[in-house]
Design a protein that fits this description.
Shape: globular
Strand content: 15-25%
CATH class: Alpha Beta
CATH superfamily: RelE-like
Order of helices and strands: HEEHHEEEEHH
Number of strands: 6
Structural class: alpha+beta
Largest sheet: 6 strands, mixed
Number of helices: 5
CATH architecture: 2-Layer Sandwich
Distance between the termini: 38 Å
Helix content: 25-40%
């Protein structure tokens, strides 16, 4: 539990943090997603989120749900009830890039999708064809 949480706390650099598994996809975090995970005060929930994200190293393209409405190419998983983790599968890099983690609060400024849309608008996360290097 705390070891996985420490990975995100200790390994924060300009690139964000990264969960490494011996096989499968590498799971990496945008700096914004790292901050979002570290802001979750309940360590049990934080640990559950990190464990679920580690699971994306195997078959990430069939886990979660594909997003639409302005978030094409992104997927999301639900963790601990209302929490959502939004990620992108970068096939050529063999990487899962976690872009945002937070609570789903429809019609709230704290909604994870609203926060992600703002991050994309401000250029704080890579999004689009140039981000995946799969062309």
């Amino acid at each position: 539990m705390t070891q996985a949480a420490e990975v995100c706390t200790v390994s924060v650099h300009n690139e964000g943090c990264c969960l490494r598994e011996p096989t499968g996809y590498r799971v990496s975090f945008s700096p914004g997603a790292t901050d979002m995970v570290n802001r979750i005060r309940d360590l049990r929930i934080r640990s559950r989120i990190i464990e679920k994200l580690k699971g994306l190293s195997a078959y990430p393209e069939i886990q979660g749900k594909a997003l639409t409405d302005g978030f094409g190419g992104l997927r999301r998983i639900t963790v601990a009830g209302r929490y959502r983790a939004v990620y992108r599968v970068l096939q050529m890099r063999h990487e899962v890039r976690v872009m945002a983690v937070g609570i789903r609060r429809e019609s709230s400024k704290d909604d994870v999708y609203r926060i992600l849309a703002g991050m994309i608008r401000r250029g704080e996360v890579e999004y689009g064809d140039e981000a995946d290097g799969d062309d």
